[in-house]
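tool=predict chain=A
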Amino acid sequence: MVYVFLAIAIVAEVVATSALKASQEFTRLWPSVTVIVGYALAFYMLTLALRELPVGIAYAFWAGLGIVLVTLIGVVVYGEKPDVPAILGLGLIIAGVVVIQVFSRMSSH
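tool=predict ok
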């Protein structure tokens, strides 16, 4: 169940972060509400995940997957185009999360 909480936290954070641009500096109501609710849900779910996961592992997943997912949303929704170094960096982030999950004894399986 801990990874379900973490997954919800990551998705909520990605939605909130993606809505930041649409909020236009908190001048548009519904995107601004999405940001606030999304971050509140994200942090609450993260606290539930931290009951069992070490904070470093949880944050590695949170940050790593969040960066990749927000980048993908930027491509699809906002037409942003990552260059080759950005794509390589994202690949390294994904590889880091996989290494932690597969090989680290610190991660709870």
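The radius of gyration is 15 Å. The helical segments are 2-22, 29-49, 55-78, 84-103.
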